[in-house]
From TrEMBL:
Highest taxon in the source lineage: Bacteria
UniProt-listed InterPro entries: Luciferase-like_dom, Luciferase-like_sf, SsuD_RutA_monooxygenase
SUPFAM superfamilies per record: Bacterial luciferase-like
Record Pfam families: Bac_luciferase
Matching Gene3D superfamilies: Luciferase-like domain
Keywords, sorted A to Z: Flavoprotein, FMN, Monooxygenase, Oxidoreductase
The Luciferase-like domain, residue ranges: 18-247
Name this polypeptide is given: LLM class flavin-dependent oxidoreductase
Length: 318
């Protein structure tokens, strides 16, 4: 398994906030994340807009979309948006890619059949990569066709050339099912599932590796990530109440035993033991998404200062 260190990310829940982000940048946190829907059922943000706020309101950390529902977007347009954000941020953007589908009306509203979301995501990722490589490129696929397009990322003030990384931002695939695992192995720069147990995470790692072997892909540099709903409190019972209140209704009133497998909650010592199981299963960058409605900064602080130091990469098997 690649990676000899464990890094921590944090989701900016419920919305990106300048003071919250400034506080997180003072912690041993490597990344901050936000996603979003186009037509969510409530007043929450959209992924590219939120990503723009993250890039504007941070200076040090990597910033990520968790996740961008790529099939809802025209890929040439979003390629330009993401390239500009990566350039203006000094190459700090990472794009978590998902297919969505839980809100069918979003797809109907933008004229995308929900049954095409997987195929459109694959083709969209290919188009992003082509445009980010630079130079005139063409594409003739099932959903999009063009010749001789050249994308020019914006130049940050004072820069002679764009600061976008060569090849553009990493594309990290999210999901929980076999098609997403195959997409990660074939097209992704990393794998970032969510709402899975450590055992399920281990199985997903194996599935990605097996698919990569089948197609002859070397996964050197591939990122093994985990997006983890979580609550950490000095009072472990309060943390468990956080998760039950935050996720129980949002994900179909899942019973406590199920939530306990997929959303760790408790004291720093209790949560560290649960996160170590994900590390043992292969995760190297864990994004903590505070599963609470208040004091989310405290959860991130405890994760960074009291949980992260307790985690260790397993010794390699000889």
């Amino acid at each position: 398994m690649a990676g000899d260190r464990i890094t921590l990310g944090a989701a900016a829940i419920p919305e990106p906030d300048r003071d919250w982000l400034a506080a997180v940048e003072r912690l041993p946190v490597d990344s901050v994340w936000q996603g979003g829907h186009v037509l969510p059922p409530g007043p929450t943000g959209e992924a590219v807009t939120r990503l723009a706020l993250l890039t504007a309101w941070t200076e040090r950390v990597r910033v990520g979309a968790a996740v961008l529902l790529l099939p809802l977007y025209q890929p040439v347009l979003v390629a330009k948006q993401l390239a500009d954000l990566d350039s203006r941020s000094g190459g700090r953007v990472t794009v978590g890619v998902g297919v969505g589908g839980e809100f069918r009306h979003e797809f109907e509203a933008v004229g995308v059949p929900v049954g095409e979301r997987g195929a459109r995501t694959d083709e969209g990722m290919e188009i992003l990569r082509k445009l980010w490589r630079g130079g005139p490129v063409g594409h003739h696929g099932r959903f999009h066709s063009f010749d001789g397009l050249e994308l020019h990322p914006v130049r940050p003030p004072g820069k002679v050339a764009p600061a976008m990384r060569p090849g553009g931002p990493p594309l990290v695939v999210s999901g929980r099912k076999a098609p997403a695992m195959r997409r990660a192995a074939r097209l992704g720069d990393g794998w970032m599932p969510y709402l899975v147990s450590p055992a399920a995470y281990a199985r997903s790692v194996q599935a990605v590796q097996e698919e990569a072997h089948t197609i002859g892909r070397d996964l050197a540099g591939f990122e093994w990530m985990m997006y983890l709903y979580c609550s950490i409190r000095a009072d472990g019972d309060r943390a468990r109440e956080d998760v039950a209140g935050f996720l129980g209704s949002a994900y179909g009133d899942k019973p406590g035993a199920m939530l306990d497998r997929i959303a760790p909650a408790g004291t720093p010592e209790e949560v560290a033991a649960r996160l170590q199981a994900y590390v043992d299963a292969g995760a190297r960058h864990i994004v903590i998404s505070p599963a609470a409605r208040e004091d989310t900064l405290e959860i991130v602080r405890l994760a960074a200062e009291e949980v992260l130091p307790r985690l260790s990469v397993p010794a390699p098997v000889r």
